[in-house]
Amino acid sequence: PTSQALGKKNPVTMWEINHKGLSYSMDEGVQKVLGHIWEKRAPILAYVRDHSDIKVGIRSAIWIHEDRPVYDLSADSLKKMAYLGCKFCIDDVYDLRGDDDDDE
Question: 17 versus 39: which is more confidently predicted?
Fold first, then answer.
């Protein structure tokens, strides 16, 4: 609002909640992020509805250290994301396991 009062536009503003943790299920991280905002879902949704240029989304980056994780989302996560009009994407997958085939 201050920028608008000065006649300035901010083309991109981003609020971000990060969750880093070891897990074999992508849904665990999604649930952690949703847990941070779910109590405030009504005012968040009202704000998003009042500002049609706002986009809501969850982006997941996967880091594989040992076993490949399960790329799943629970029905609960899907319902909550749909309620918020939230898009979902797997942004990047980083496979940090060594390639043992070169040693043979």
Answer: 39
For 96, what's the count of Cα atoms within 13 Å in the CB-facing half-sphere? Answer: 8
Kindly state the tokens that stand for 104. 């043979």
Alpha-carbon span 55 to 45, nearest angstrom:
11
Q: Report d(CA 20, CA 41) in Å as an integer.
A: 22
What does the chain look like in DSSP terms, one character per residue? Answer: -HHHHTT---S------------SBHHHHHHHHHHHHGGGHHHHHHHHHH-TT---EEEEEEEESSSPPB----HHHHHHHHHHT-EEEEEEEEE-S--GGGG-
Confidence (pTM): 0.72
pLDDT at 1: 61
Largest CA-CA distance found in the chain, in angstroms, rounded: 66
Structure tokens at 3: 């920028």
CA-based nearest residue to 44, from 75, 91, 81: 81
